[in-house]
Amino acid sequence: MEACVNWFRQHEHAALQILLFNTSGDRDCAALLRLLMPERFDYALFCPNVSETSSAQPSLSVCAQQMLNQNIWDRLKREENKQRPLALESSSLVFPCIHSALQWINRRTHQESISNNVSVLVTGSLYLVGGVLKLLDPAHCS
Q1: pLDDT, tens digit, for every residue of 80-103?
Q2: Cα separations in angstroms, 50 against 9, 62, 71, 78, 140
Q3: How far is residue 137 CA from its own chain's centroid?
Q4: Which of 116, 1, 14, 96 is nearest to 48 (CA)?
Q5: Which residues of the chain have pLDDT under 50?
Q6: How much is the pLDDT for 32?
Q7: Within a 10 A sphere around the Cβ of 38, how many other Cβ atoms?
Q8: Strand, coil or helix: what is 45?
Q9: Tell me, what DSSP letter sits at residue 11?
């Protein structure tokens, strides 16, 4: 995650910054998310490594894991805001699949009329990164 954060910092920051995150299993979600805190995301989105809900319904435990990840993010943001009162407020959302998260991002960027000035960092799981790439450009991921 440190390498990911360092890479993200090297790129020009956009008007709207979105984190799309997933982790599961025995990884320390709080430690990973804590490294992302300084990046000042406007939105933190959480979803399982499922491309679409119609093809494979995520289990309750998978959805519960995403809600737990969201709760950890929200707690870390509250702690950060206590330490830095002027810290950026961010919203966090949970989605049932990657497709629904990408649809939300698309709608949000068009609502704010900034579709060319958005950064989305997809991290936490290589399966999540692969799922996003597959949905964005299926021809290159077959």
Answers
A1: 877 766 555 668 999 989 999 999
A2: 28, 10, 20, 29, 19
A3: 19
A4: 96
A5: none
A6: 95
A7: 10
A8: strand
A9: S
- Report pLDDT for 31: 95
Inter-residue contact 35 to 1 (CB < 8 Å)? yes
Whether 1 contacts 32, CB under 8 Å: yes
Bridge partners of 91, per DSSP, are 43
The overall average pLDDT reported for the chain is 84
30-37: long-range pairs with CB below 8 Å, 24+? 30/72, 30/76, 31/1, 32/1, 32/124, 33/69, 33/72, 33/73, 33/76, 34/76, 35/1, 35/2, 35/5, 36/1, 36/5, 36/121, 36/123, 37/76, 37/77, 37/80
* Pair of tokens at residue 26: 């025995």
The first and second tokens of residue 75, run together, are: 């707690």
Residue 13 pLDDT: 75
Question: Which residue from 35, 48, 15 is spatially nearest to 115, judged by alpha carbons?
Answer: 15
The strand ranges marked E within 22-104 are: 43-46, 91-94
- The pair of structure tokens assigned to 129 is 């990164």
Q: CA 28 from chain center: how many Å?
A: 16
